[in-house]
């Protein structure tokens, strides 16, 4: 099904959450486990691709034929992507990157104070990693993900256009959907196609995604 398309091709992929420090021991994060992105990385490597995986803080292992860069924050993920995006054939952004980070993380652990019942954290916007990749002159084929709790296809199409992506994978997320789960259901969207997959495990979704890219390039 993959028709040797991935043999020798270079794929850069982000996976997992980012952790945005509040102080040395606390962070703002999300429930991404990295499973979806790691499944794509493993399937592509098996299909003969040269895979670089930029992983947020996750507890997953990856096979030794995958070049892995571990990062923690969105800014670190951005720096790693900038270092590796050149000469890639494809970039897949499966990471759940924090949209905002704490403006000034404290250098020391923040102490609970008597009489102080409210604490305000000031947040600033993080760089949009995939949008930056898609804006480069020598850009690879850029595939984004859209994690939505409602209006899935509508919001995904907005992101495809706004971030100038070649393709986006839409998935519904919620209490037991998308994040952390073993199964997922992706809808592949390009400027002229919408293709919905049946629900299956993330390994299976990964293969379907790689086949879709192969068939649309
Ligand atoms: O890791 P799992 O537990 O297996 O869960 C998988 C998943 C649900 C996290 C995954 O399938 C998924 O949907 N990943 C993207 C989640 C997300 O945060 O989407 P978003 O709609 O916020 O972002 C849209 C796109 O922009 C994504 O490709 C994202 O990587 C990218 N982005 C977002 C913000 C930012 N600052 N930089 C980015 O590159």
TrEMBL record:
Binding locations of CTP: 99, 109, 127-130, 145, 159, 163
Cofactors that this protein relies on: FMN; Mg(2+)
The entry's keywords: Decarboxylase, Flavoprotein, FMN, Ligase, Lyase, Magnesium, Metal-binding, Multifunctional enzyme
BP-aspect Gene Ontology terms: coenzyme A biosynthetic process; pantothenate catabolic process
A cellular component annotation (GO) from this entry: phosphopantothenoylcysteine decarboxylase complex
Bound cofactor: record note: Binds 1 FMN per subunit.
Pathway: Cofactor biosynthesis; coenzyme A biosynthesis; CoA from (R)-pantothenate: step 2/5; Cofactor biosynthesis; coenzyme A biosynthesis; CoA from (R)-pantothenate: step 3/5
Disulfide bond listed as a keyword: no
Ranges for domain DNA/pantothenate metabolism flavoprotein C-terminal: 6-214
Sequence segments annotated as region (Phosphopantothenate--cysteine ligase): 11-217
EC number: 4.1.1.36, 6.3.2.5
Family per record: In the C-terminal section; belongs to the PPC synthetase family. In the N-terminal section; belongs to the HFCD (homo-oligomeric flavin containing Cys decarboxylase) superfamily.
Protein name: Coenzyme A biosynthesis bifunctional protein CoaBC
Native species: Thiomicrorhabdus sediminis
Gene that specifies this protein: coaBC
Entire-sequence positions represented here: 187 to 403 of 403
